[in-house]
Design goal:
This protein has one helix and 17 strands. The radius of gyration is 17 Å and the shape is globular.
C-alpha cells in the first residue's frame, strides 16, 4: 500500500513513499514501531505499543518508565513519541537478540539537545549491556554489542570511511540506518540514503546484538537518557545490504519529511 508523506522541511505533503512491507527483506523485520499509528491527544502519556514487525506480540512495548508522551508538533504534525524528562523509556515484552552478527537497525528521530543520548539499550544486569547511543555533540555513535568487546565509537563528522562529514543538529529531524554485515563491519546511513560512516572493523568479536529498551536506559549507564522525539524505529534480523539500506533511508525520509542532504 502506498502512503502520503508529510513535510517539516520543504517536502511537499503529496510526496508518495513506500511502506516497509513493500520493501525488500520485510520477512526479516522482527521489531517495528511506527508511532504515527498511535491514537490519542497531544502530550498524552504512552504506556504501550504494538510491534508491527514479524516477531509478533512477544516484542510489544509492555511497560514505560517516566512519562513518554504523544507529540503532534514535530514531523509536520505526524504523531511521534516525546521523551522529555530523565528516565523516559519503553521496555519491550522480550529482549530482541539477533541470530548472528548481522542486523539492520533504523530510527526516525529528533534530538532536542546534543548531550549524550541513548536511542536503545539492554537492561540486562551485567557489567556490559548492549546499546546504541550518541556522543560527541552529535558527531559520534557509540555501540556496544555482546560481552566480547568494548564499546566502539564510530565518528560521523569525518570523511574517514565515507565521503561525507555529517553531524546531527538539535531540533532537526533525521533518519538513521545502521547495518552490520556478517563480518562485523558497521555501515551508517543518514537522511536520504547518505553513507556517512563505516566502522574500522573493531566490532568483529560480538556474536550478536540485543536490546530491550527504547529511549535511554542502559544498565551500566543508568542515568543515560534520550531527550527528543522518536517517530519510527525497528530492527531487521539480517544485513539487508547497501542498496536496500539506502532505499529504506530514502523512503523513511520522504515519509517523515526529512530532506537534509548533508
Amino acid at each position: 500500500m502506498l502512503g502520503l508523506g508529510t513535510s517539516v522541511t520543504n517536502i511537499d505533503s503529496g510526496q508518495i513513499y513506500k511502506e516497509l512491507s513493500e520493501l525488500s527483506n520485510y520477512a526479516d523485520l522482527d521489531v517495528h514501531f511506527d508511532f504515527s499509528t498511535l491514537t490519542g491527544v497531544h502530550e498524552e502519556e504512552v504506556t504501550a505499543a504494538t510491534n508491527l514487525g514479524q516477531g509478533g506480540a512477544v516484542f510489544n512495548i509492555s511497560t514505560n518508565n517516566g512519562t513518554p508522551s504523544l507529540d503532534k508538533e514535530n514531523f509536520g504534525g505526524r504523531l511521534s513519541v516525546a521523551f522529555a524528562t530523565a528516565g523516559d523509556y519503553f521496555t519491550l515484552g522480550r529482549t530482541f537478540q539477533s541470530a548472528n552478527k548481522s542486523f539492520t537497525f533504523f530510527v526516525v528521530l529528533q534530538r532536542d539537545n546534543l548531550e549524550v543520548n541513548a536511542i536503545i539499550g539492554s537492561s540486562v544486569e551485567e557489567e556490559t549491556s548492549n546499546h546504541v547511543r550518541f556522543t560527541g555533540d552529535g558527531a559520534e555513535i557509540e555501540t556496544l554489542m555482546g560481552t566480547d568487546e568494548a564499546s566502539i565509537t564510530t565518528t560521523l563528522n569525518s570523511t574517514s570511511g565515507s565521503t561525507v562529514n555529517y553531524t546531527q543538529v538539535a531540533g532537526v529531524p533525521s533518519v538513521l540506518v545502521m547495518r552490520r554485515d556478517t563480518g562485523g563491519v558497521l555501515y551508517v546511513y543518514a537522511d536520504n540514503g547518505i553513507l556517512i560512516a563505516i566502522s574500522s572493523g573493531d566490532m568483529k568479536q560480538a556474536a550478536n546484538f540485543r536490546f530491550l529498551t527504547i529511549g535511554g536506559l542502559i544498565h551500566h549507564h543508568p542515568t543515560t537518557t534520550f531527550d527528543g522525539h522518536i517517530g519510527e524505529v525497528g530492527i531487521y534480523d539480517a544485513d539487508i545490504g547497501d542498496t536496500a539500506a539506502i532505499t529504506l533511508s530514502k523512503e523513511l525520509s520522504t515519509k517523515w519529511g526529512v530532506n537534509r542532504r548533508l
